Amino acid sequence: MEETISLRELFNALRKRWKLIILLSLFSMLISGGISFYVLTPVYKSSTHILLNQKNADNQLDYSQMQSNVSLIDTYREIIKSPAILEKVIKQLNLKYSVEQLNQNITIESQQNSQVFSITVQDNNPGMAVVIANAISDTFQKDIKGIMNVDNVSVLATAEIKQNPTPVSPNPILNIMIGFLIGFLIGIIIAFLLDYFDNTLKNSQDIDNYLGLPVLGTIQKIPQRKGRNRSNLGKKEVRMYET
């Protein structure tokens, strides 16, 4: 005969072990918070903004030229992240990064149909992130003239260090919330498993369901009064059933 579990039984299993669920949730929150604040290294980011804009011979803006500049952003993205630019930046700043490592810390973003794109650099040191971002934009602006034979790159905004820089990662609040949810789910699973594998008889209904013995009567627990010794009756619940 297949075993079935009702919603009432599931709710009772959670209610009986709610302390375990809360304890695991709090423990997981403490672990997540400790790792976020004391183990993970904070990462900061800084950005520069580049404008692609080249005027025609009459010093007038040309729409077709603007569209051409927009289409060049993907090409410029590859040039910026290439060894031709990054090796010069590494040598100039005497960085300990390799080209591949520095490449992974660089993000280039642009809006659709916009001539402006940003160069964002991530680093464990907020000041170094600013220095690297500015060095990349300056090197790119100087070298693109010889690489592409164009002069349409301008630094629209340089990176600046803030008074109280905020790391972009880790996010302690988010990690703590995730830790709470993980601990809560683990607590629920453990509560279900403990209840599922608990084969002890807890009440008269269990005796009737599992043993098939009708219960004739029960003796309820009698609360212990002050002054009585511990051997007093009332500490146990006695049930009588037919054999």
From TrEMBL:
User: Which Gene Ontology cellular-component terms appear in the entry?
Assistant: plasma membrane
Residue ranges constituting the Polysaccharide chain length determinant N-terminal domain according to the UniProt record: 3-93
Task: Spell out the subcellular localization from the entry.
Answer: Cell membrane
Q: What InterPro entries does its record include?
A: Bact_polysacc_biosynth/exp, LPS_length_determ_N
The yes or no answer to whether the keyword ATP-binding is present is no
**UniProt keywords, alphabetically:** Cell membrane, Membrane, Transmembrane, Transmembrane helix
Q: What is its main location?
A: membrane
Q: Which Pfam families match?
A: Wzz (PF02706)
Gene Ontology molecular function: any one: protein tyrosine kinase activity
- Bilayer disposition of the protein: Multi-pass membrane protein
According to the record, the segments passing through the membrane are 20-40, 173-194
Q: Into which family does the record put it?
A: Belongs to the CpsC/CapA family.
What is the official name of this protein in its record? Capsular biosynthesis protein
Q: Which organism is it from?
A: Heyndrickxia oleronia
